[in-house]
UniProtKB/TrEMBL annotation:
It comes from the Eukaryota. Residues 26-141 form the Non-haem dioxygenase N-terminal domain. SUPFAM superfamilies: Clavaminate synthase-like. Pfam families: DIOX_N. Gene3D superfamilies: B-lactam Antibiotic, Isopenicillin N Synthase, Chain. This is Non-haem dioxygenase N-terminal domain-containing protein. GO terms for molecular function: metal ion binding; oxidoreductase activity. Keywords: Iron, Metal-binding, Oxidoreductase.
Length: 159
């Protein structure tokens, strides 16, 4: 086993204080419920647990399996390949592997994309600035099904 790079090591005072939580059931959010109820349940689950399971979301199991498969294929690619769609100051969408928590690098990779493409956002944080900036999704060349799986999932969630 190789050594862990110091960028990934959290100072002892910032490490989580582990505690055992005993429960019969983790939070399950039913998306077929009333919107206000769902929002309240999500808020409570995030506050109490930090995560939850979603049911009745309308995405078929076959599509979920394909999304998992193509996502794994993408994240298993060499870093040089993933960097072709790396997000930056100009484009906040795409691949990213450098998030930090309390100045320590997180042990994760992400791929951000928007449901509405293109999306228009304010060009600056200045209140008087009325200009808009266009943000577009960027998609990897490999695996070729990655973009289609994402689009199919978003279409299912809209309905």
């Amino acid at each position: 086993m190789s050594e862990i790079h110091p960028a990934f090591i959290q100072a002892p005072e910032y490490r989580p204080k582990l505690k055992v939580i005993e429960t019969d059931e983790l939070p399950v959010i039913d998306l077929s419920n009333d919107t206000k109820e769902v929002v309240s349940e999500i808020g409570e689950a995030c506050k109490t647990w930090g995560f939850f399971q979603v049911i009745n979301h309308g995405v078929p199991l076959e599509l979920l399996s394909k999304i998992k498969k193509t996502s794994k294929e993408f994240f298993d690619l060499p870093l040089e390949e993933k960097k072709f769609v790396k997000r930056d100051e100009v484009n906040p969408l795409g691949y990213h592997d450098s998030e930090h928590t309390k100045n320590v690098r997180d042990w994760k990779e992400v791929f951000d994309f928007l449901a509405k493409d293109p999306t228009f956002v304010p060009a600056s944080h200045e209140p008087d600035d009325t200009q808009l900036r266009t943000i577009r999704n960027q998609w990897p060349a490999h695996p070729p099904e990655f973009r289609m799986c994402a689009r199919n999932m978003l279409e299912r969630l809209k309905n």
